[in-house]
Amino acid sequence: MKKRLSILDIANSLDISSTTVSFILNGKAKEKRISDKLVEKVEKYVEDVGFRPNSLARSLRTGKSNIIGLMVESISNPFFANIARLIENKAYNNGYKIIYSSTDNDTTRTRELIRMFRERHVDGYIISPPEGIVDDIASLVSAGVPVVLFDRYLPGLDVDSVTIDNFESTYKAVKDLIRSGRRNIGFITVDSLQTQMQDRLAGYEKAIEEHGLAPHVKEVDFNQIPEKVIRHLTAFFRKEKDLDSIVFATNYLGISGLKTIRNIGLNIPGDISVIAFDDHDLFELHNPSITAISQPVDEIADAVINLLLNKLNKGSKPRKEQNVVLPAHLIVRDSSKGAK
Amino acid sequence: MKKRLSILDIANSLDISSTTVSFILNGKAKEKRISDKLVEKVEKYVEDVGFRPNSLARSLRTGKSNIIGLMVESISNPFFANIARLIENKAYNNGYKIIYSSTDNDTTRTRELIRMFRERHVDGYIISPPEGIVDDIASLVSAGVPVVLFDRYLPGLDVDSVTIDNFESTYKAVKDLIRSGRRNIGFITVDSLQTQMQDRLAGYEKAIEEHGLAPHVKEVDFNQIPEKVIRHLTAFFRKEKDLDSIVFATNYLGISGLKTIRNIGLNIPGDISVIAFDDHDLFELHNPSITAISQPVDEIADAVINLLLNKLNKGSKPRKEQNVVLPAHLIVRDSSKGAK
DNA sequence: TATGTATGTTAAATCGTTTTAGCAAGGTGA
DNA sequence: TCACCTTGCTAAAACGATTTAACATACATA
Q1: Closest nucleotide (CA of B11 to C1')?
Q2: pLDDT tens digit string along A112-170?
Q3: For B317, which DSSP code?
Q4: Model pTM?
């Protein structure tokens, strides 16, 4: 097990100082007037022995890590997994690596993760924040650390964010149901105060109200295992026998909802029309195929990483905070088609 | 933006040496005979000012990072996302953090990732290795770094691994099809030499051969976009008109396969029986529901993290390499039921 | 000759920890 | 009194990079 080389080993082997090696390795040869001959010699040697500087030592000295901390609600949620994958790629292409972690929407855990990331000197943060974390993020921001929020934002906190127009997305979806003749439109969401959930609910309520209809909202507990969700939904459907359509406010609610509907034996769209949030292979392949509110995952990832890279590069130049709001797209499929 | 405290600041404030603070913070107070009074005073102060040691500096000095590097094929594949999620949790509970990255099955990229992880001094590696990476992993192992492979292994390399019994899983699945009267059984896989794919193929071939049937194997290119896969599968199904059943060797092939079958207008299981790999909400909810070879994700994650923690703790005590092989489970659903 | 300036390189401080080796003061036994 | 423990603490050297400030040397200018 041979010891890893250090910059000093290189310097000794070549009978020069470690400073010189460092300058060359950091592309400061010109600036520091190192002779071309020496530069070439060092570069060749470094290449030959496959030397790579220890990034810990570098980070310790410079305070920079070239690492971005990514905190999503749960990496096993396909929406977040896809975003993470895209962000990872784009970051990688720009010389950054990603440390990710799932917050589980748990404030304490998130707080700990932020602390860990800070200790590790990550250069920037990408966060889909849980409730109750606003102070921690505020203190990050006021410490001058680049932060970009996505999927939801924190009202009252001036920080870059990327979200979709949640209000408009459910508003349009519900209008679409109404247009095709539905009147008893249910809305299944989680009991979360996060902005994206509140906005989705508000969009639903607005559409319902505009048409003088009665709302039928079911909020299930956050962070429940699917079996429990299904039990609650079953009870809801049993109670609300008149529903002719239903909108699910998240992808996992949609999946549990479809299982529930199948268990109960309701017919889609004959008995009930369905619209789900986030597109998914499952919704496309389902029989009947399920109408979905599709988030522009690619654009979200793009916007997020661009905002962050901007902050990272512009350094301290205090650009105004940006709040990017992207449109979602209603993909109409069989589950919401057909006359009444 | 106030500067972060260092252990030296603490020491100065209390008029003691940083050594003492370090000893106390690392639980060596007893061993180093620091007086209880002082221990208490330091602990209180540290708590009050919320000091947390800089883990970069610590890692630089100790060579340990309490970080595990996790490299999966792609985090957007639900199988890997789930495993990653579980591993992350278990690692977290044991004081370890995870840095993950997707390899894309790209050898070069994987090599770079390993290098990055080494630079960052990760304490251990969990890898679902792409082809052609055996030398790099061998050199990790021979450097005494804890490594656990999963999902596949590298023949000829003596290193801990966790896999499922891929051979047995497809063997049984195909036998099941034969038992229910199928004779023209197709097998869709990818053109990969990775062990898990080869074993799945071998299990299929063995069952086919035992019954004197003719194999119908289609290998699609690795790393293709779904649209292309579907195009190839369409051609395959058009050519092999006699197929009465099909086994998909991965979850994403299953999904593309189902889309293809739907496009072509084949009836499941009337025209064709279907068995897919990896269970998935989609397979459960599909109409008809799809029989799936379900990997024990929880047990896999458990085994992986246990093996790794073992290595990490036992230190240099050279325990014999372990190769855990877990059974997969055939979940029989409607897509493979019904008489001929 | 003295002064300035461009060129090429480096010594040493620094980042914030851990760890080795050892110091001072007080007690104990002979 | 001397030699030797114990107790309680600390100085200083790592870890491996970056960066500041400076040092020679050569050459040109006045």
Answers
A1: D10
A2: 889 888 888 899 999 999 999 999 999 999 888 999 999 999 999 999 999 999 999 99
A3: -
A4: 0.89
Measure, in angstroms, how far nucleotide D26 C1' is from residue B164 CA.
Answer: 72
Question: Of all nucleotides in the shown strands, which has a C1' nearest the CA of A18?
Answer: C10
If you average pLDDT over residues B295-320, what whole number do you get?
A: 87
Listed by number, the residues of chain B in 194-213 with a beta carbon closer than 8 Å to a beta carbon of chain A are none
Phi/psi of residue A315, nearest 5 degrees: 65, -130
Omega before A215 cis (within 30°)? Answer: no
Q: Which fold has domain B7-53?
A: 434 Repressor (Amino-terminal Domain) (1.10.260)
Mutation site, A1, A66, A75, interface B, largest B CB count within 10 A:
A75
CA distance A170 to B98: 36
Q: Which option is the CATH number for A166-295+330-336: 3.40.50.80, 1.20.120.140, 3.40.190.10, 3.40.50.2300? A: 3.40.50.2300
Q: Is the CB of B84 under 7 A from strand C?
A: no
Q: What kind and span of H or E run contains A176?
A: helix A166-179
Q: Is A253 exposed, middle or buried (0-12, 13-18, 19+ CB in 10 A)?
A: buried
Is A149 strand, coil or helix?
Answer: strand
Amino acid B1: pLDDT: 47
Alpha-carbon distance A209 to nearest alpha carbon in chain B (angstroms): 33
Q: Which DSSP letter does residue A296 get?
A: -
Res B179 pLDDT > 90: yes
Contacts of B318 (CB under 8 A, 6+ apart): none
Show me where the domains of chain B are located.
Answer: 7-53, 62-164+298-326, 166-295+330-336
Residue A317: predicted pLDDT: 58
For chain B, what is the largest distance between any 2 Cα atoms, rounded to a whole number of angstroms?
86
Task: Indicate if B166-295+330-336 has the same CATH topology as B7-53.
Answer: no
Q: Contacts of strand D, CB cut-off 7 Å?
A: A 3-8, 18-19, 22-23, 25-26, 53-54, 57-58, 60-62; B 15-20, 23, 32-35, 37-38, 57, 60-61
Q: What is the pLDDT of residue A339?
A: 47
Within 7 Å of a protein beta carbon, the nucleotides of strand C are: 7-12, 14-21
- Taking residues B83-102, what's their average pLDDT? 89
Give residue A130's Cα distance to chain centre. Answer: 12
Read off the pLDDT of each residue in A285-306 and give the average, rounded to a whole number.
Answer: 97
State the best of A49, A74, A76, A93 to mutate against chain B, taking most chain B CBs within 10 Å: A76
**Candidates 3.30.70.1140, 3.40.720.10, 3.30.420.40, 3.40.50.2300; CATH matching A64-163+298-325:** 3.40.50.2300
A81 touches chain B (CB under 8 A): yes
- Of the candidates B233, B284, B225, B236, the residue with the CA atom closest to the CA atom of residue B259: B233
Torsion angles phi and psi, residue B22, rounded to 5 = -60, -45
Would you say A269 and A319 are in contact if contact means Cβ atoms under 8 Å apart?
A: no
CA distance A183 to chain B (A): 27
Model pLDDT, residue A150: 98
